[in-house]
Amino acid sequence: TLVAHGSITKFIPHLLICDTTNIFFNTAWLLRLTGFRGSIVVTYLELTFAIAFLFTRVINLPVVFYSLYYHPHTSTLGYAKYTLPPIAFLQWFWFYKIVRSIVIRLLPAKKQRKEE
User: How much is the pTM?
Assistant: First the structure.
């Protein structure tokens, strides 16, 4: 069973911690909608989101998925265990998009300084 000692339920806290990044993302999103787009608070929330995303989803999640994929009780999941690697790759893709948007925001500021 899934609830026995040494079962896969020990991975649930590792998966739930990933949702903590949503707090920073959603708060920044709401502040942008209410007119605080360029504020320092939104910038800090976005940076905190990126750092939390790195640690909880880009680093933690693939390690948990690897452990879960090769866990003896994973056979009870059937074909569902084959969805774990694509989810890990999706986290990496999203992090690439996050980093790219940060770089795009920072580079135009550097170009404008050179032109002045």
Answer: 0.77
Question: Which residues in 48-68 are b (16+ Cβ under 10 Å) and which e?
Answer: bbbebbbebbbebbbebbeeb
Asked, for residue 1, whether it belongs to a domain, the answer is no
Per-residue pLDDT of the chain (116 residues; tens, 9 = 90+): 455 556 767 778 888 898 999 999 999 999 999 999 889 999 899 999 999 999 999 999 999 888 888 887 777 778 888 888 999 999 999 999 999 988 888 777 655 556 55
Neighbours of 23 (CB within 10 A): 13
90 assigned to some structural domain: yes
Q: Is residue 2 part of a domain?
A: no
